[in-house]
TrEMBL record:
<dbReference type="InterPro" id="IPR006710">
    <property type="entry name" value="Glyco_hydro_43"/>
</dbReference>
<dbReference type="InterPro" id="IPR013320">
    <property type="entry name" value="ConA-like_dom_sf"/>
</dbReference>
<protein>
    <submittedName>
        <fullName>Family 43 glycosylhydrolase</fullName>
    </submittedName>
</protein>
<keyword id="KW-0326">Glycosidase</keyword>
<dbReference type="Pfam" id="PF17851">
    <property type="entry name" value="GH43_C2"/>
</dbReference>
<dbReference type="Pfam" id="PF04616">
    <property type="entry name" value="Glyco_hydro_43"/>
</dbReference>
<comment type="similarity">
    <text>Belongs to the glycosyl hydrolase 43 family.</text>
</comment>
<keyword id="KW-0378">Hydrolase</keyword>
<dbReference type="InterPro" id="IPR041542">
    <property type="entry name" value="GH43_C2"/>
</dbReference>
<dbReference type="InterPro" id="IPR023296">
    <property type="entry name" value="Glyco_hydro_beta-prop_sf"/>
</dbReference>
<feature type="domain" description="Beta-xylosidase C-terminal Concanavalin A-like">
    <location>
        <begin position="309"/>
        <end position="499"/>
    </location>
</feature>
<dbReference type="InterPro" id="IPR051795">
    <property type="entry name" value="Glycosyl_Hydrlase_43"/>
</dbReference>
Length: 502
């Protein structure tokens, strides 16, 4: 990469199902957040290459009791971000509830509470369009077969201009079962351009698919289709599902994801132009680019979503999300630095995958080292706290209070099919109740754990390879737990969380 070029991915972590909009000289992006809280992350850029996380549009998932426990494959699927009538709008599908929307006068809020636009099972990937030419409003969505028994088709509706309800029963406007070779059509994004209604929509599955474009003179069709981005002979598999955006100077660009196993869905930026036949051309004549000339936008300093955290006043940065709706008292604010997590009592303390009180952030997509200092302040036998790599399988390293009052450095893991964790190495005494925890994450998301309890760094256990959840990349997590019982079980304090790239 030079000052004139950029290298993909521009967001090298799991910013799944991105959508993008420009307002003035600013670009904004949101992404799926599934069952984590807060949800609907909001990113900002001035050059489409350097992005920062500026907040979230969804403080808690609703209904709250449905997301009091982890629901890693549910919640917020594939949102669409739009700007209309001097407001930001986000529509998304919850596959178990229906189509929701929130809106706000500024990207940082305040955002409204979720409003259910259309109730139903399997309604996913909605996208609105306010047609400035006619004053009409429309919405298109896809289907999740796991909930509805239907997939590979897009349904269109007329929508109330205030985005509050749909005005008809809907009509299938694209049936990809009728298109030879197409399957799993989903993730539509709806636009108006050059007198046509355009739907940009992926098909073929997240790991092996392609990006399609559809156009029609009328919203309800008929639509003609074309594949506009596919892997071809590149190393970028499944390049699809994202959004088109135009710069102030008239350049067109397309942001999409690539599925990368434990790293989740990383975000690429593709050049886009309109061909002589009126169809969009993405990437290098339909193949994804890895290095390309930067957009014609003012130069910006390098930036990326924050990862490091000193937890000033006990507060955690906006890069962190809980694995479910949080409860009061999990994290305690105080006068100094450091994250003070309550040792939450749980009958599921043996399985981090079942716990809502794990504070997580995305696993970086490039080799790095993750470090944090931990002090276990709990006197409760069995209380524990640590640093985890969390997915369908998980591994963690941390401290645990023994029945005899001593504190041990412990390292544990659980396979995908395992119902509870096992020791990954022999426990060691941590006489001061403190440890510096470290995970070196190498190629292929292979994780090497180590620690320092005052005697210098020591490796721990075998290499652990991170795994994704069903739709979500692996997560880094901080947690504090205690066995089921009565009364307050104390706390643990984390300081100086750092991610250093190789």
């Amino acid at each position: 990469m030079t000052a004139e070029t950029y290298t993909n991915p521009v967001l090298d972590a799991d910013w799944s199902d991105p959508d993008v909009v420009r307002v003035g000289d600013d670009f904004y992006l949101t992404a799926s957040s599934f069952g984590r809280a807060p949800g609907l992350p909001l990113l900002h850029s001035r050059d489409l290459v350097n992005w920062t996380l500026v907040g979230h549009a969804l403080e808690r998932l609703e209904p709250a009791d449905e997301f009091a426990a982890p629901r890693h494959d549910r919640g917020v699927w594939a949102p669409s971000l739009r700007y209309h009538d001097d407001r930001f709008w986000i529509f998304w599908g919850d596959p178990d509830q229906g189509v929701f929307q929130v809106h706000a006068p500024e990207i940082r809020g305040p955002w409204t509470r979720p409003h259910l636009v259309k109730e139903g099972k399997g309604l996913i990937d909605p996208c609105p369009l306010w047609d400035d030419e006619t004053g009409e409003a429309y919405l298109v969505h896809a289907w999740a077969k796991s909930r509805s028994g239907v997939k590979n088709r897009l349904t269109g509706h007329r929508m109330h201009p205030e985005g509050t309800e749909l005005l008809d029963e809907g009509k299938v406007i694209v049936d990809a079962d009728r298109i030879p070779g197409w399957f799993t059509l989903e993730g539509p994004k709806l636009y108006r351009h050059d007198g046509w209604f355009w739907i940009f929509a992926p098909a073929g599955g997240v790991e092996t698919g392609w990006q399609g474009a559809f156009r029609s003179r009328g919203f309800f069709g008929p639509y003609e289709e074309r594949i506009v981005l596919e892997q071809k002979d590149t190393g970028v598999n499944g390049p699809h599902q994202g959004g088109w955006v135009r710069t102030p100077s008239g350049e067109d660009w397309f942001l999409h994801f690539q599925q990368r196993g434990a790293y989740g869905r990383v975000v690429h930026l593709q050049p886009m132009r309109w061909g002589a036949d009126g169809w969009p051309v993405l990437g290098d004549d339909g193949a994804p680019v890895l290095v390309h000339r930067r957009p014609d936008l003012p130069s910006q300093p390098p930036a990326a979503p924050a990862t490091d955290d000193d937890f000033p006043g006990g507060r955690y940065g906006r890069q962190w999300q809980w694995t479910a709706n949080p409860s009061d008292g999990w994290a305690t604010q105080h006068s100094g630095d450091g994250l003070r997590l309550t040792c939450v009592r749980s009958a599921d303390a043996h399985d981090l995958r079942k716990l809502p009180n794990v504070l997580t952030q995305r696993l970086p997509g490039a080799p790095c080292t993750v470090e944090v200092d931990l002090r276990l302040d709990s006197e409760e036998p069995g209380a524990r706290a640590g640093l985890a790599v969390l997915g369908d399988a998980f591994g963690w390293i941390g401290l645990q209070r023994g029945a005899d009052g001593t504190v041990h450095l412990v390292h544990r893991f659980a396979e995908t099919v395992a119902e509870r964790e096992r020791d990954a190495d022999h426990p060691r005494l941590a006489p001061d109740g403190r440890a510096r925890l470290r995970i070196e994450i190498g190629a292929g998301a292979r994780c090497r754990f180590s620690f320092d309890v005052g005697e210098g760094p020591r490796p721990s256990g075998p290499v652990f390879t991170a795994t994704p959840w069903r739709w979500v990349g692996a997560l880094l997590g901080l947690f504090a737990l205690a066995p089921a019982g009565q009364g307050h079980a104390g706390a643990a304090t984390f300081t100086q969380f750092r991610i250093t790239h190789a």
